[in-house]
Specification:
Layout: E1 3-9, H1 16-26, E2 30-34, H2 42-46, E3 49-57, E4 61-64, H3 74-78, E5 84-85, E6 89-90, H4 100-104, E7 110-113, E8 116-125, E9 128-135, H5 142-160, E10 164-171, H6 175-181, E11 186-191, H7 195-210, E12 215-219, H8 226-238, E13 243-246, H9 252-258, H10 263-266, H11 270-286, H12 293-296
Parallel strand pairs: 1-10, 1-11, 2-9, 2-10, 11-12, 12-13
Antiparallel strand pairs: 3-8, 4-7, 5-6, 8-9
Helix pairs in contact: 5-6
Length: about 300
């Protein structure tokens, strides 16, 4: 059975992709999925060679047949998003795809059509297959695109005999995060010792636990605020969450990204060894049953 590990963070900038790209380098038989579809950046490190492109269609949008339209104005007054303007033109950036205009039109002049909202790709990388995506600017339904990326990653894993999918999840706690963690075998939350880091850590842990997914935490940049790092550790202890890594701030991360390489490829220093230690603990956790994860550490 293919295991799935999702790496998330309550907020952006904690180092989530830094860890995920290094895990991809360390894993021996994995498919990588970049599910941060609003701001995908895994490709900058893995330098993929695309072999498959799929169009992504999000919400339907309204279109008006000007030949059938009687200019009664019912659709205009019924649209709470003010998406229908003069000249029987629909603003596709305002249209939310609710379909009210189609429902109320007495002349059947309005219909809902599929609108391309982005693309997702299958690629080869030096670490194995990568499924990644690009959502169009201002587009909705990021959670649906995340689900498409995960589905295709699962198919590739089955086809190529991989035993693990490593998912770089989006930040926050919204629909895209829910789509990235649902059904995963484990969630690793990468956090940082800042006020917003702690606040968002608590929120994202609540989301993962709502879906009964085992959680582990890694504190990145722990030395930027020792007091808050201790607070995170205390929170995790009280809530029976294993802290499997505490890594210092290190400029090596930036240097590695500039070179388009993962940290463990670029350097064998302390930060790299810290990531290797976290990966080793994750591998041990992933072979356990979900019910035994809390007791393991």
């Amino acid at each position: 059975m293919v295991k799935q590990l999702t790496v998330i963070s309550g907020k952006g900038g904690t180092g989530k992709t830094t860890f995920t790209s290094s895990f991809a380098a360390l894993a021996e038989n994995a498919v990588i999925a970049d599910c941060d579809v609003d701001a995908a950046d895994m490709h900058l490190i893995l330098q993929p060679e695309i072999f498959e492109i799929h169009d992504f269609y999000g919400l339907d949008v309204a279109t008006i047949d000007k030949e059938l339209c009687t200019d009664c104005g019912i659709c205009v007054s019924s649209c709470r998003f003010a998406a229908i303007g003069s000249g029987k033109v629909v603003d596709v950036y305002k249209c939310e795809g609710c379909g009210v205009c189609e429902y109320v039109c007495p002349a059947n002049a309005v219909s809902m059509i599929a609108k391309k909202a982005g693309e997702y790709y299958c690629s080869n990388t030096r670490f194995g297959p990568l499924v990644h995506a690009k959502l169009g600017a201002g587009e909705e339904a990021s959670g649906k695109l995340v689900s498409d990326v995960r589905r295709r990653a699962s198919e590739l894993a089955e086809q190529s005999g991989k035993d693990l999918i490593i998912i770089d999840g989006p930040p926050g706690t919204g629909c895209a995060v829910i789509a990235a963690i649902t059904g995963a075998d484990m969630v690793l939350v990468v956090t940082e010792p800042t006020k917003s880091g702690i606040h968002d850590l608590e929120r994202v842990v609540q989301v993962a636990r709502h879906f009964r997914i085992p959680v582990a935490v890694c504190i990145n940049k722990r030395d930027i605020n020792d007091r808050l790092s201790v607070s995170i550790g205390e929170y995790c202890k009280i809530n029976y969450i294993p802290v499997i890594g505490m890594l210092p701030y290190d400029n090596i991360v930036i240097e590695a990204m500039v070179e388009g390489r993962s940290v463990v490829e670029y350097s064998g220093g302390k930060f790299s060894e810290g990531i290797r230690s976290v990966w080793g603990k994750l591998e041990n956790l992933l072979v356990q049953e979900k019910e035994g994860l809390v007791e393991l550490l």
